[in-house]
Amino acid sequence: MKLFGYWRSSATYRVRIALALKNLPYDYEAVHLLKGEQNSEAYRAKNPLGLVPTLQTDDGALLVQSSAIIEYLEETFSEPPLLPGGAIARAQARAVAATLASEAQPFGNSRIQKYLKNERGFDADAMNDWMNRWPGGAMAAVEKMLAHTAGDYCVGDVPGLADCFLVPQMYAAHRFGIDVSGFAKMNEIHERCLKHPAFEKAHPDNQPDAVTS
After folding, report:
1. For position 132, what pLDDT does the model report?
2. Predicted local confidence at residue 200, as pLDDT
3. Within 13 A of 100's CA, how many CA atoms are on the CB side?
4. Residue 51 class from Cβ within 10 Å (0-12 exposed, 13-18 middle, 19+ buried)?
5. What is the predicted pLDDT for the residue at 119?
6. Suppose 47 and one of 35, 54, 81, 184 were both cysteines; which one would form an S-S bond, judging by CB atoms 3.0 to 4.6 Å apart?
7. How many separate domains does the chain show?
8. What is the extent of the structural domain holding 42?
């Protein structure tokens, strides 16, 4: 398999965690978002959205959208599972993941950030308000969801699908100045995940295209 992605992309980060939890080897090709490589003709042929990640399977199929890629990995490489046992718990895990993927992460996408700054004239204060209202509000909802689902991790005591989405969103929250100080359960799970070898391997700072300041 080959993963096309960017070190700081939340969506790519999710897939890296899933691959690491399943201990699946893959090749990696960086797509530098700040240089616009995602808009090249060659990359758009792989991913018409011009987004990362893209996963190329061993038989040459090209898969896009992190949620779909992770579901493919779960269906194709069943052990260890990313979804818990029981229909209710699986639905809860998917709900946490979907809330973070749909209601929190998109507002921090580089194209949205550029639009707000360059075309709408948002200053630093307006950007901070935006990020805390929308991603921050979605994360507050997830904190309440975790009160009913969490053990050591988001759903139960084994890291899985929901944690693949939580950890990158926490990384983004710290990057964009979203106030997560009141999210006790979320912070507890995040700290536990960061000590897990799979999450450590997937961390943006440990990627070959990482930029350190």
Report:
1. 85
2. 98
3. 30
4. buried
5. 83
6. 54
7. 2
8. 2-80
Last residue of a domain, one of 52, 80, 108: 80
Lookup: tokens for 192:
């536990």
* 64 and 93 assigned to the same domain: no
Supply the pLDDT for residue 213: 66
**If you search the block for the tokens 């308000």, which residue do you land on?**
129
| Contact between 104 and 150 (Cβ < 8 Å) | no
Calpha distance 35→32 (Å, rounded) = 5
Residues 120 and 178 in one domain: yes
- Whether cis (ω within 30° of 0) applies to the bond prior to 84 is no
The rounded distance, in Å, linking the Cα atoms of 21 and 38 is 27
Q: What is the mean pLDDT of each run of 10 residues along the chain (213 residues)?
A: 97 98 98 94 96 97 98 97 97 98 80 79 82 90 98 98 98 93 97 98 97 79
15: which 2 tokens? Answer: 């897939």
The reported pLDDT for the residue numbered 127 is 81
The whole-angstrom separation of Cα 42 and Cα 210 is 22
CATH value at residue 29: 3.40.30.10
Q: Which two tokens stand for residue 49?
A: 């959205």
Same domain, 122 and 154: yes
pLDDT at residue number 8: 94
